[in-house]
Design a protein that fits this description.
The chain has about 210 residues and is of the alpha+beta class. It has helices spanning about 5-20, 25-45, 50-70, 90-95, 100-105, 110-115, 155-170, 185-190; strands at about 75-80, 115-125, 125-135, 140-150, 175-180, 195, 205-209. The protein has two domains: about 5-70; about 75-209, Aminopeptidase, CATH 3.40.630.30. It has eight helices and seven strands; from the N terminus they run αααβαααβββαβαββ. A seven-stranded mixed sheet has the order 1-2-3-4-5-7-6, covered by helices on one side. Helix 1 packs antiparallel against helix 2 (about 25-45) and helix 2 (about 25-45) packs antiparallel against helix 3 (about 50-70). The termini are far apart.
């Protein structure tokens, strides 16, 4: 049986809508869901299936409304240095997200992180990211953990962090970030954050402040 292009459009729209429901980031979910709804609206219009057309046209409008509201809502970010010695929340945060953390940092040893400095990134007072680092003597900040929780993984928190953290440490003589990573998804994140892989040492990523 050979499917015509309208049937393919219906199948593609179904796959896009289904895929949108797997997104943890609300902005990506709404964008993908809207694309699927647009495809279904076109499908309904071509075949004169008015219930499909009307419902999905409404879904497109709802997604547009919330995407505009997200775009216009001012978010408030802060960096909060935190200590393993005094914080009850820090180990609980890591314990709660440990499975997802290990997807990006499979070789991480939690106990080893206690010797390094830690900073929470908050977004509208919600802790959405954790940055654990070591200050080296040659002006380098070595990153041991750079983690954002799934539903806020849209690079906005990371961009804020790298901009503000630079102001905190540059005056103390630090000028370069170094991170080690062999996980493709996290390597893509590092490259998005303007890190460059060291050609002489695969898995070593460097970024100037």
């Amino acid at each position: 049986m050979i499917l015509d292009w309208t049937e393919w459009l219906g199948y593609i729209a179904s796959v896009i809508v289904a895929a949108s429901l797997t997104m943890t980031n609300i902005r990506r979910l709404r964008w993908l869901n809207m694309i699927g709804a647009i495809a279904f609206t076109i499908y309904g219009a071509i075949l004169q299936l008015y219930p499909i057309l009307v419902v999905n046209g409404f879904i497109v409008g709802v997604n547009i409304f919330y995407l505009v509201r997200i775009a216009l809502t001012k978010e408030h970010f802060h960096l909060i240095p935190i200590s393993w010695d005094t914080s009850i929340f820090l180990p609980r945060f890591i314990e709660f997200y440990i499975l997802d953390i290990r997807k990006h940092f499979p070789d991480i040893i939690i106990e080893d992180l206690r010797q390094y400095r830690s900073v929470f990134i908050t977004r509208n007072v919600v802790p959405v990211g954790l940055f654990i680092y070591e200050r080296l003597e040659n002006g380098i900040i070595q990153i041991h953990l750079d983690y954002e929780i799934p539903m806020y993984r849209d690079y906005e928190s990371a961009r804020y962090f790298f901009h503000e953290f630079r102001e905190m440490v540059q005056e103390k003589g630090f000028h370069t970030y170094v991170a080690y990573c062999h996980v493709p998804v996290h390597q893509r994140y590092l490259k998005r954050m303007k890190f460059k892989e060291d050609s002489s040492e695969p898995g070593r990523f460097v970024r100037k402040m």
